[in-house]
Amino acid sequence: MVCLSGEEVARFVTAPPEIKINPNGVDLRVSEIWKISEDSVSTLHGKIRETTEQVRIEPNGDFYELARGVYRIRVANEVSVPAGVVGFCNPRSTLNRLGMIKSQTGIWDSGYKGFGTQTVFIPIKLFRIHKDEFWFQLRMHTANDSNHSYDGHWQNEKPQ
């Protein structure tokens, strides 16, 4: 796989909000955050994909204040992964260094289009992050098989 340049990746990301172009990808902001209760129940069966007991988190002034726990986070920019390419969305290394742990779920297949979500775990007492901070970096790599395109459950996912 060959990594596309940040300028190339930026062509497949809608703005606003502003993105930050890096040598090998683009940084993205978030639009929505939900805390998943430790008492939640998740169900995956065919077209049923749901998690109970999620609470939307709003900024406290200029900062999101995330207490210890699990969060579902929606990126603020619509992403369109072109044919022959796969997208990887990972937290910026700064977030990892400061105590955020991200689940490894950010793989977007060729043909995916939507406002993707990520799951993160905060193992520390409190993680304060400015509402306009860049959270994730999207990278895209060429893929050998360009004859198939994503047509799954999350195609065209949008903010709620």
Describe this structure in words.
The protein is mostly beta strands and about 160 residues long. It is about 5% helix and about 45% strand. It has two helices and 14 strands, in the order H-E-E-E-E-E-E-E-E-E-H-E-E-E-E-E. A five-stranded antiparallel β-sheet has the order 1-2-14-9-11. Strand 1 (about 20) and strand 2 form a beta hairpin. It is globular and about 45 Å long. The N and C termini lie far apart (about 35 Å). About 25% of the residues are buried.
Number of helices: 2
Adjacency order of strands in the biggest sheet: 1-2-14-9-11
Q: Percent range for helical residues? A: under 10%
* Head-to-tail CA distance between termini: 34 Å
Indicate the mean pLDDT: 89
Strand content: over 45%
Q: Radius of gyration from the CA trace?
A: 16 Å
| Poorly predicted spans | none
Biggest β-sheet description: 5 strands, antiparallel
Instruction: Note the overall shape.
Output: globular
Write down how many β-strands occur, each being a DSSP E stretch of 2 or more residues: 14
Structural class: mainly beta
Helix/strand order, N-terminal first: HEEEEEEEEEHEEEEE
Indicate the topology.
Blueprint: H1 6-10, E1 20-22, E2 25-28, E3 30-36, E4 42-45, E5 48-51, E6 54-57, E7 63-75, E8 79-80, E9 85-91, H2 93-97, E10 101-102, E11 107-108, E12 113-114, E13 117-130, E14 136-142
Antiparallel strand pairs: 1-2, 2-14, 3-6, 3-7, 4-5, 7-13, 8-12, 9-11, 9-14, 10-13
Question: Which features does this protein show?
Answer:
160 residues; mainly beta; 5-stranded antiparallel β-sheet; 2 helices
